[in-house]
Amino acid sequence: MKKINKYNKNCPETISHVENQKLKAISWSEETSNIPKRYQNASIIPINDSQIILKKQIKDNLDTSTLITDEYGNVSLIDFNNIVINGNIGVGKTYLTIGLIKYLISLGVGCKYTTQYDLIGLKQNKEYQAFDNFKKINILVIDELAKTELASWQVEHLEELLSWRHNEMLPTILITNHSPSKFAEFIGSRIISRLRETKTIITALTGQDLRAGN
After folding, report:
1. The domain over range 2-205 is classified in CATH as 3.10.580.10
2. Fewer CB near the terminus (10 Å): N or C of the chain?
C-alpha cells in the first residue's frame, strides 16, 4: 500500500496535531462502523484454502491502493477496487470482510457495515441523513444482497447509492449468497456495467457451513 502524507513532516507540532486527529477519527470510525457485536473479534486470518485465496485477492487489492493523510488528520483510501464476494451460508464471507474493515479502521479509514434490509429500511423510514452517511463513507460493506426480492422503488434506492459511490470513486464491498449470474440478474445491468468499469474483483468462498454445530 502506497502512503501519501499531505502535511509538513518536518514540523513536530503539525505531526502531533495530525496524529491526535487521526486517533479521534479511528475512535469515531469504531463507534459508527455499525459492526454487529457477533463480529467484534473478527479478523482476516484465513482458516481454509478458499479463504486463503480471498485474503490474497484482498492483499493484492490493498497493495495497489493508496492511503492519503491530509493536514487535518483525515485518512482516505483510494485506488481500492470494488469487491463482490459470493458463497453459501456460513463460509466466512462476513467474518473475513469485517476483519478487513477493522484493519482499515485501525489505519484511520472511515468504514461502515450494513445489510441490504437495513440500508433500504433507512430510506423507507425517511432516515435520509443516516442513509447518506452510508452512501458517503470511504469504504462501505453491504451484506446479504439479493437475500430478498426488492420492489422497483427499493431497487432504485440501491442503484442511487451505488451509482453515486461509483461516480465519487468510493470502494464498495458487496456480499451475497447467490452465484454471479443470479446476483447480476438481481442487481441489474446498469450496476453490473459500473462494476465492470471499475475492475471489480468477483470472488467466491466455498466450503462447509462453519456455523454448523456452534
Report:
1. no
2. C
